[in-house]
Amino acid sequence: FKQKTAYEISLGLVGSEMCIRDSPYTSNAYIEIIGCTSLSNYDGQIYTSEKIFKPFMSYNIPLFIGQKGLLKTLKKLGFNLFEDVIDTSYDNIECNLERTIKATENIVRLGKLPIEEIHELYNQSREKLEHNNNLMRDLYHLQVETFKNLLNNNL
């Protein structure tokens, strides 16, 4: 028995599956590991960057390695973090090193799965991926409108 590669599986995708995988925003991965800019939140604030939001636009299952409380903040915004696939309990760990080690345990566990199983997990997550993408688009449009209003009110 020979396991199929992600490329071999992608050849079998049809219809909307292929549209999602061919998106200009997507990498050819099912799960995206995001190493955040900062692991510490010195002032209690959660620091975000474009890296944090990319997996939501690219229909990837995100696995974040970042600040304590980042996942809690993203959940408050309404994003689904695929807790049926990823153990997100590391988000509560105070120590940066321990939190990173616990997060990487997910990477090791998922990396041992056959590509067919990852493919199936991804397909079962279709609605959640769509939800995150739609939420990201809504937040983007809200930010654009807010910025336009600021410019119009200050000119």
Overview of the molecule:
This protein is mainly α and 155 residues long. It contains 7 helices and 2 strands; from the N terminus they run H-H-E-H-E-H-H-H-H. It has helices at 6-10, 16-21, 50-57, 70-76, 96-111, 115-124, 126-154; strands at residues 31-35, 61-65. It has a two-stranded parallel sheet with strand order 1-2. It is flat. The termini are far apart. Residues 1-21 have low confidence and may be disordered.
Query: Which radius of gyration do the C-alpha atoms yield?
Result: 17 Å
Run of helices and strands: HHEHEHHHH
Q: Please give the oligomerization state of what you see.
A: single chain
Number of helices: 7
Strand order of the largest sheet: 1-2
> If you average the pLDDT, what whole number results?
82
Low-confidence stretches: 1-21
> Quick one: biggest sheet?
2 strands, parallel
Q: How far apart are the termini? A: 67 Å
Q: Kindly state the number of beta strands.
A: 2
